[in-house]
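Below is a filled-in request sheet from our internal design queue. Each sheet records the structural input a requester submitted and the sequence that came back. We keep these sheets so that new team members can see what a complete request looks like end to end.

REQUESTER: design group, bay 2
PRIORITY: normal
MODE: inverse folding
CHAIN LENGTH: 152
BACKBONE (tokenized):
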């Protein structure tokens, strides 16, 4: 699973790199024809990673319920984020880079896997599949963010 972790880390570092210099206004802009902004996609990536890998494999999610609700699938921005929330999102994105390999290598950290059918019809039914799908999902949102970045 080392390559899968490497791919996840590379994608996560890439998205942090290409967005960390954006202003709060740029992170919050919802261009015409879009329903989301860069800030929401970043928060969604952090929440979905925790849900796919941790919640579906008996691990500790460790995120506030309101944050999870705000950035879960089907959500959209409910207003602009402030500097505090921006910092929290970037902290999560960065922590998850180091947290994933550490937790995967901690015996007994993860437990039973709970099967989940993604909206794309893919069945996530193991920890390994969760790591792979989390990277795929992250890559998809990197594409959305790159499109939005050109418009802000």
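RETURNED SEQUENCE:
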């Amino acid at each position: 699973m080392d390559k899968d972790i490497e791919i996840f880390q590379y994608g996560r570092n890439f998205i942090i790199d290409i967005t960390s210099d954006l202003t709060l206004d740029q992170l919050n802009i919802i261009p015409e024809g879009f329903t989301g902004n860069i800030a929401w996609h970043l928060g969604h990536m952090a929440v979905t990673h925790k849900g796919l890998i941790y919640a579906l494999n008996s691990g500790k999610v460790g995120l506030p319920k309101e944050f999870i609700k705000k950035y879960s699938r089907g959500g959209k921005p409910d207003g602009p984020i402030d500097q505090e929330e921006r910092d929290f999102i970037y902290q999560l994105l960065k922590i998850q880079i180091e947290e994933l390999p550490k937790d995967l290598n901690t015996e007994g950290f993860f437990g039973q896997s709970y099967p989940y059918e993604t909206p794309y019809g893919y069945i996530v039914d193991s920890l390994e599949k969760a790591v792979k799908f989390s990277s795929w999902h992250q890559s998809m949102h990197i594409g959305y963010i790159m499109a939005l970045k050109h418009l802000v």
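SHEET NOTES:
- The chain is about 60% helix and 5% strand.
- The longest strand covers residues 116-117.
FILED BY: M.R.
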